[in-house]
Amino acid sequence: MTTAYGTVLVVEDEESIADVLAIALRYHRFEVMIAGTVREALALSERTRPDVALLDVMLPDGDGRALGRELRERRPDLALVFLTARDSPAEIVGALGFGDDYITKPFDVDVVIARITAVLRRTRPADVLPQRPPLRYGDLELDETTYSVRRAGRTVELTPTEYALLRFLVRNGGRIVPKEQLLRHVWQYEHTPPESTVVETYISYLRRKLDALGPPVITTRRGVGYGLA
Q: Of 40-49, 159-168, 192-201, which gets the smallest average pLDDT?
């Protein structure tokens, strides 16, 4: 039986780390499944439906990012959080290209819990009701029941975090939304990391996908934030 807060698939080959994560997650009322390899993770994901996968990037039989891509193909609504000892900008941007968050090693277990909770909060918003009408802005339409997006009648495939970011921009209409506000409401950051480029990274992902179907729709107010044209 799942807990009130959801199910986490932990994919980590170091048993001591996996045990610490499992104990902390269960204490915070998550159900936890543990896999030490890509093969075990894929088998578990076939039998169950986790809400979020916490993936080590370096696994004994493969790459955690490749595993994340395969899990996302099977379950587009599955949230992905990466654990990595690599903290270069290229590694971070690569992980965020299709994942929802990343955590560098060594980590504080309380931070891991907070980040997983934040990811689930933005990918499974409690205030979304099945009967709510679609959100519309120009030729954009966001279906709040299926979490799908269409532009000019054509489907746009977005990750859960990309969807959450676009939804917040649509709800704010043509207003410029400060970067700090986006970090608070989309990423649930209480204190803005001064070096964070996560907003810029996800704005670029949205632009690439949306601009392929029409004129540029996201505007930038340099030094302030972003909005819709």
A: 192-201
Bigger pLDDT: 71 or 144? 71
d(CA 9, CA 173): 37
The kind and range of the H/E element at 130 are none
Last residue of a domain, one of 95, 123, 151: 123
- Asked whether residue 1 is domain-assigned, the answer is no
Residue 22 is part of which domain span? 6-123
Say if residue 130's pLDDT is above 50.
no
Domain end marker among 94, 123, 152: 123
**What's the structural domain count of the chain?**
2
Angle between helices 160-171 and 109-123 (to 10 degrees): 60
Query: CA-to-CA distance for 144 and 136, rounded, in angstroms?
Result: 11
